[in-house]
Specification:
Layout (H helix, E strand, L loop, with lengths): L3 E5 L4 H12 L3 E6 L17 E5 L17 E4 L6 H6 L1 H21 L4 E7 L5 E6 L10 H16 L5 E7 L1 E3 L10 H11 L2 E4 L6 E6 H13 L8 E4 L5 E3 H10 L5 E4 L8 E4 L2 H7 L7 H14 L12 H10 L23 H13 L6 H14 L10 H11 L7 E4 L5 H9 L3 E4 L19
Parallel strand pairs: 1-2, 1-4, 2-3, 4-5, 5-7, 6-14, 7-11, 8-10, 9-13, 15-16
Antiparallel strand pairs: 10-12
Helix pairs in contact: 1-6, 3-4, 5-7, 5-9, 13-14
Length: 457
């Protein structure tokens, strides 16, 4: 294969398996990943011919101008990967899972890349009724699922003769991966059954879920990549009818394959999400029938746990939400997430037709700084404020400078001010020859602490 495939989230739970299978088929792979879980998951791929790892953040694509060079197709896996992670900070979910996905697609389209395979989810069916097909009504009941629906719709709106988005609505993944997860239903049940000899079922256990092994899901992505043009704008459920389970039955199945395991169904409100899914289209259009069973997953995960291949299974590296919480709590300067995703304006200007007309009239007057219109504005401000004088300046720094000069501040004077402000606040004091004296702020208001001022005299 001459095609080089860009796999976002290539160092993740699904991505590491998919990258390996792409390489096995002869594809070249460029994995793009933030590496929140480190480089260990891709260690076995690093020496393989055709594999390239780019460490980066999908929300800052402009910082990677060569990312799409020589790329023939995109498989987009990156994003916050379950309901708890998306609920932690909804604004981050919108930025990472939606806006970054659209930006990625736009860049792929501009670079002439046709195949764009999007990792969607069967959770878009939410509280579904009956056996759900790709044409069934969508009823997402979580932010994670809502954003998947929005992204599918937006990507299809971008489709054209040279850009072919395909959406794979995956069942809940399970199975062994180099970047192992224990926050997935089958995996965590095997973990508790193997190590604790007890499996807990929450939410009553009557809810339906479809499942698919990470190996079979990877095969679906590769098959979609190879047929992308003919499948443009199609949604395809990825899983197996035989792997639709009620959670209580799934837990019983896991327990039956692990000796001495006790099953406990915890009382509680019924889970809102419940969906039994039809997967006929997967076989029809991709000629795929998943071959891995839940029993296969139980065996491989249990063996890995008992052999010590998955050390410290309670470590946050196996749980998306735990690591994400650590990331959110860590200062941005130390590699954590910014406290706010978007710029926070100090105030929103209220500009209407009158303001626009004044600007146009000023531009046409030939007086861009001073002049008769500035004088009229000063007079209007003076009368409105009820003061003796009003002077228009072009910045707050100019206003501070003028106010101190009007007070006669100069060499030998001291001016008390706050340290939590712009540098210009102290600069104008120094510019006039005086000395700034800083007084700390109140913790709750961040205003200068009046009780500390007297001690500075």
């Amino acid at each position: 294969m001459d095609m080089r495939v860009l796999v976002t989230g290539g160092a993740g739970y699904l991505g590491t398996v998919l990258c390996r299978k792409l390489l096995d088929k002869g594809y070249k792979v460029r994995a793009f990943d933030r590496l929140l879980f480190g480089r260990e998951p891709v260690r076995n791929l690093m020496d393989r011919d055709g594999f390239e790892l780019v460490e980066g953040d999908i929300t800052y694509l402009s910082e990677y101008p060569d990312l799409f060079h020589d790329i023939g197709g995109v498989i987009h896996l990156a994003g916050l990967a379950n309901d708890p992670s998306c609920d932690l900070r909804p604004e981050m979910t919108d930025r990472v899972n939606y806006r970054a996905s659209i930006a990625l697609a736009e860049k792929a389209k501009v670079n002439g890349i046709g195949p764009f395979i999007f990792a969607s989810s069967c959770s878009v069916y939410g509280a579904g009724v009956g056996e759900l097909k790709e044409t069934s009504p969508l009823n997402p009941v979580s932010l994670y699922a809502e954003v998947k629906v929005r992204t599918e719709q937006a990507l299809n709106g971008m489709a054209g003769s040279s850009f072919w988005p395909v959406h794979l609505r995956q069942a809940t993944l399970f199975g062994l991966s180099p970047r192992m997860r224990f926050d997935l239903a089958v995996n965590v049940m095997v973990l508790h059954g193997t190590l604790n000899r007890k499996i807990y079922v929450l939410g009553g256990g009557k809810q339906w879920r479809p499942f698919v092994h990470v190996e079979d899901s990877s095969d679906a992505f590769i098959a979609s990549l190879e047929r992308a043009e003919s499948l443009s704008c199609e949604m395809i459920n990825v899983g197996s009818k035989a792997l639709n389970y009620q959670i209580c039955d799934l837990a019983a199945l896991v327990a039956s394959h692990l000796p001495g395991v006790e099953l406990e169904v915890a009382p509680g409100d019924a889970e809102r999400r419940t969906y039994m899914v039809n997967f006929d289209k997967l076989e029809k259009v991709l000629d795929l029938i998943p071959s891995w069973t839940v029993e296969d997953g139980i065996r491989e995960i249990s063996q890995a746990l008992t052999s010590g291949a998955l050390p410290e299974p309670q470590s946050s590296r196996y749980y998306n939400i735990r690591l994400l919480k650590e990331l959110v709590e860590k200062p941005a300067t130390m590699g954590g997430e910014p406290a706010c995703d978007d710029f926070v304006p100090f105030c929103l200007p209220l500009l209407g037709k009158e303001e626009e007309e004044e600007v146009v009239a000023t531009l046409r007057s030939g007086w861009l700084t001073t002049g008769p219109r500035t004088q009229r504005f000063e007079e209007l401000a003076r009368d409105y404020l009820g003061c003796s004088h009003a002077v228009a300046v072009n910045s707050c720094t100019g206003a501070l400078h003028l106010a101190l000069a009007a007070l006669g501040i100069g060499p030998g004077d001291e001016v008390i001010t706050t340290p939590v402000t712009w540098p210009s606040t102290a600069n104008v004091i120094v510019h006039l020859g005086a000395r700034p004296v800083f007084v700390d702020v109140e913790k709750d208001t961040l205003n200068i602490d009046a009780n500390l001022i007297e001690g500075k005299f």
